[in-house]
Amino acid sequence: MRSLFTVIAFTIKDMVKRKSFIVSNLIILLIIIIGFNVPKFLSGITSEATKVTVLDNEDIFEGRLDTLHDQFLELGYEVEIDKTSTREQVQEKVQNGEVSSAIILTEANNSLHFEYLIDGMGVGTTVPTDVISAIQLTYQNMQLAKLGIPEDKLPTLNTQSNISVTSLSSDESSSNIFVMMLLSIVLFYAIYFYAYQVSSAITVEKTSRIIETLVTSTSPRIIVLGKTIGIGLVGIAQTLLLILVAIICANVFLPAETAQMIFEMLQLSPQMIGIIAVYYLLGYSLYAMLYALTGSTVSKPEEVQSANGPVAILAVIGFYLSYFTMMNPTSSLNEIAALVPISSPFCMPFRVMMGLSSTNEILLSIVILIVTIILVAHISIKIYSSAILNYGEKVNLKKMFKMYKSKD
Amino acid sequence: MGLKVQNVSKTFGKKLAVDNISFEMNKPGVFGLLGTNGAGKSTTIRMILGILKKDSGRITWNGKEVERKYVNFGYLPEERGIYPKIKICDQLMYLAKLKGMKKKEAKEAMNFWLKRLEVEEYRDLPAEKLSKGNQQKIQFITAVLHNPELLVIDEPFSGLDPINTELLKSAILELVEKGTYIIMSSHQMASIEEFCTDILILNRGKTILQGNLKEIKESYKANRVELITKVDVSREIQEEGLKIIKELDNQYEIAINDEMQAQNLLKRLISKNIEVEKIEVKKPSLNDIFIEKVGDK
Q1: Smallest Cβ distance to B98: which of A3, A208, A212?
Q2: pTM for the whole thing?
Q3: Which CATH class is domain A49-154?
Q4: Which of A103, A108, A217, B266 is placed for a possible disulfide with B98 were both Cys, Cβ 3.0 to 4.6 Å?
C-alpha cells in the first residue's frame, strides 16, 4: 500500500512539474479569462451609438421623426434628422466620416422610398433595419391617421402575437440537449486526454529502461495502478480548477443577468453531478488501462503512435456511437451506446439528464463498465508484466495473447 | 544462509533459456556469472530477482523462497535506465521510497552515495544533462542506496573511464566488507578475476564450468611463457620447437605444453649469453579458460 502511495505521489509530482502541463494549463486559463471578457469587449465596442443622418428635406414626416430620437438610441443609433440639406451635402458628410451612413427619404404616389448611403460595405456592416422599420411604422401611422383613424387607436392595429413556452417536464434542464451534447464532448476529451497520459508515462519508463529497476522494487500491478490513480487525480484537480476559474470569471466579468442565465442553463442536480463524476472516473479507468497495455508494448518512442492507434480508434468509435445517436436519443442504438463500455461514459450521462434511462439501466451500465474495467485491468497488468521485458520485437495480438498466457 | 539456486530451468516457447543450473553463495562476496550474449545470464538474474518466474527448481534466500518482499535486493541492469527529464535527487528519493526507506534515511543515504561517487554537483540536474559515465554512477547509486543484502550488478564497468572504474571498484569492495552478497555479470574477465571467488560460466543456458575461481585456475597446467629480452630471440624460440603467440619489440608470448619447455628455452638463451629481462611461466587466464570453454562450442 505504501508503494502505491509512493507511485501515486511521484506520478502527480512528475506530471504537474512538466513544462508542457504548466504551459497548457496557463493557455487554457487565459482562454477562459479572455472568453469571459469577450461580451464585455464587444459591448465596449458597440456601446458608442452609430451616427446616422436621416434626410427628410421634403418634410414628409412633418417633424414627427424627432420624437423617435430616444427609440433610435435604444437601438444603438444616434439619428440626426436633417430637413434642410441636399442629397449631395449628406453624401459628403458620409464620405467625410461625420456620420457612418445616411437614409434619404422620398415620397412618390403615397409610397415611401428609402435610399441608404454608406461609404463602403465592409465585414460586419449592416443596414440599420430597426431604424428603417421604425420610420416605416411612423409613416404607416401617418397614412392611417389621414384616413381618419384616431391616433390612440393606432397601436391596436400594430399588435404582435406573443408566444409563451411551458415545459411539461419537472426537470428544467432535461430539454437542454445541446448543453448535454457539449458536456459529452468535454467528457470525451477529458477521459481521452488523461488516459493517454498513462500510456505516455508508462512508455517513458519502458523506453528509458528504468522499468527493470522499478519491477525489482515493487510489483507491476502497483506501478500500473499508481500511475492510473496519480494521473486521474491530476485530471480531477485540473478539471475542478478550470471549473472554479470559469465560475469566478463568469461572476467577475459577465453582466449579472448573463452569468445568471448561464448558471441556470448549466444547473445540474447533485445527482447529475454524481452521475457525471462516476462515468468520468469509470471511463477514464477503462481507457487508462487500455493505454497502460499499449504503452507497455512500446520499445522505442517512435512506436508510441502506432501502438496506441487501436485504443484511439476504439475511443473514437465509442464517442461517435454515442454522439450521433444523441440526435435521436430515443433510438435503440442510443440505448445500446449507453450500455456498451467504450461509449457508455459519453452517452449515459446524456440519457440520464434527458430523463431517458431508468435506475436499472444506469446500474446495468455501471456494472458492465466496472466488470469490463476489472477484466481489462487484469489482462493489461498481466501483459504489462511480460511486455516490459520485451525489447526489439514488435508486439502484435498473437504475441500479446502469448504474454497473457505466460506465467511471468 | 545466503543464496541457493537449485536445478533452475526456464523456457521461452520452445527455446530453453536456462537449463537446470545450480549454485550457491554461503558468505558475502562476489559471485561471477559469465557467458556469451544470449547464454542465459539475464534470464537467470531476472529469476533470482523475481522478475521472471522459473519453470522448475528452487531459488532461496536464507532458506526462504526468493520473493521481492522477503529479500532486500539491489539491481544494476545491463541496459541502463533512469528517468531522463527528472532531477537526480527526485528519482533517487522515489526509488529509495519504493524500496521502503523513510525520507530522512533516504536523504542521508543519498547524500552519502552522491559524495562517495563524486556526483554531488549533479543532484539538482535532470539525468539527460549528465554524461554517460555519470548516469551510470547514478544508476549504481539506485542499486545500493537502500543498503541491499543481495546486489546484482550486470556489466557495472562498461562505459566508465579508468578513474571512475577504480572508484566503483573500491565502492564494490566496501560493500563486500560490509557483508553484501554480490552477483556480478560481466564480459570483462579481468574484473571478474579481480573480484570473484566463485564463478559459473553459462553457454546456451547450460552450465559449462563452475566452482572456486582459484581452484579452477589451479586445475589448469601452465600453457604459455612471457619472455622479454634485449635482442631478437625468435630464432632461438623456433630452434627450441616452440610457437610464438604474440611478438612485439622483443616481448614474446610463447605456447608451451609443460614447464620443462620453458626451462629448456631459458637454458638455450643463457648459453648464448642473451640477456633476459623477464621470463614467466603462466597458467591460462580466465579469458583463456572462457574462450576454451565457450569459444569452440
Answers
A1: A3
A2: 0.73
A3: alpha beta
A4: A217
